[in-house]
Design goal:
Layout: H1 4-13, E1 18-20, E2 30-32, E3 39-43, E4 48-52, H2 57-65, E5 69-71, H3 82-88, H4 91-94, E6 97-103, E7 109-113, H5 125-128, E8 138-148, H6 149-152, H7 167-180
Parallel strand pairs: 1-2
Antiparallel strand pairs: 3-4, 4-8, 5-8, 6-7, 6-8
Length: about 190
């Protein structure tokens, strides 16, 4: 899938979809985001980058290194996509998220947040969806704050293992599922 329209069509027509960033996944029931990759916008002077979800960490690191900058969180797999990292991370990653573009379970394209450090009134959905494992929506673009390489190094420590998910968290996620994926498209 190389365009938003194609991704939206697949979501609208899909039932019980799983999101993957592996280029060899062409099975029915999967949305392969790997071909939807690249830098959308990069403002080195503003310390902000917007990436398509299929962009690999290796590609992001290469782009940022050319300006002496780096991601402000730990990554240990350069082949992983930024969308996969968004879907599987926690607070150490969400602190860097400024905005996100998603396709919800109805196939609608939605934007949350932006490219500035403070722009939120109410819930910050772009951070709320971090770690949702692709069960609530298809993430298409992510805007991140970045740091100069020397400063970013202090954040490149492996985060502690996640603890067991609480009952409150599970209840909250089930309510979010009703909002973002009312048809149960994403599993």
């Amino acid at each position: 899938m190389s365009s938003i329209a194609e991704l939206q069509k697949q979501v609208r027509e899909g039932k019980e979809l799983r999101i993957t960033g592996k280029a060899d996944s062409t099975d029915e029931g999967f949305i392969n985001i790997s071909s939807y990759s690249g830098v959308v916008e990069y403002f080195p002077e503003e310390l902000v980058i917007t990436l398509k979800a299929g962009t690999t960490i290796q590609e992001v690191n290469s782009t940022l290194a050319s300006c002496g900058q780096a991601l402000a969180f730990f990554t240990d797999n350069p082949e992983q996509t930024i969308g996969a990292l968004y879907a599987t991370s926690g607070p150490e990653f969400s602190d860097s998220v400024l905005g996100v573009q998603i396709i919800n379970g109805k196939g609608e394209l939605l934007n949350f947040g932006g490219q500035v450090m403070k722009n939120v009134a109410g819930y910050d959905v772009s951070k709320l969806l971090v770690g949702s494992m692709g069960c609530l929506a298809l993430v298409t673009q992510i805007s991140l704050k970045i740091l100069p390489e020397k400063i970013a190094k202090q954040y490149h420590l492996k985060p502690p293992l996640k603890q067991k998910v609480s009952e409150i968290n599970l209840n909250f996620e089930s309510k979010l599922k009703k909002v973002f994926d009312p048809y149960g498209v994403f599993i």
